[in-house]
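cache lookup: miss for this entity combination. No prior model stored, computing from scratch. Input as submitted by user K.M.:
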Amino acid sequence: MANSSEIPDGFMPIEKPSSFGQLIGPVYERVDEDGSFTRALQVEDKHTNLGGVVHGGVLMAFVDVIMGTISYRHACRPGASIRIVSDFVAPARIGDWLEGRGEVVKATKSVVFARGRLNVGGRTILTASGNYKLQGRPHSGD
Amino acid sequence: MANSSEIPDGFMPIEKPSSFGQLIGPVYERVDEDGSFTRALQVEDKHTNLGGVVHGGVLMAFVDVIMGTISYRHACRPGASIRIVSDFVAPARIGDWLEGRGEVVKATKSVVFARGRLNVGGRTILTASGNYKLQGRPHSGD
């Protein structure tokens, strides 16, 4: 686990992570002035594959969490991932401070189309797109 | 963790899992007479998202492990995932015995194109395709 001294300013551990979020975390979040957010993960040994770099499953899980959160905050209701496309651009390594951001590309009443990007020090690690099927009924204002 | 009595005949824990494989495991394998294999995971609380079903990240990690193993066994050298497309068909739940299989669709000297499918009791949970860039030089026999 990272020492608190290694956590960049503005990042706080996310509250109430899921069971799987706890398993791969701690995950940190920084909310910027415009309301957008950056999530971050300090890479540990537990995240690695047999090649000694971050397992692709960690990267896909992390970007799914980011895009799913963006979908939730945009639509104000939960969404289930129905398709995620992940492009692995470069490896991430133990000790790396892995950051991720995303955005809504388009939203209908039933599906949010999002995209995300993970980076280490500005260097792209993974890009992804994710489609989230919204659960329940839209709010009356929709 | 599953009781040994709950593990179907023929399945054995995989040897020497990666650090991340240990984190999400134990993962089991059954090798069939034709040399193909089925991997399996007993779903636990640690695999769940805030909705109480298996986190999409677990499903993507699991199918990546399966397709990556198929790529490795086919090409006899490691491959790095460069693109994975995951379609989430149905949720998996705590206690489910999640099985997965895959196959090589096409292999060149540098890339293996694979596909995979996860199921619970024959019900499809996720389908995926994965492209693996082979590392190092091909064997002289290639």
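stored under new cache key. Chain A has a mean pLDDT of 92.
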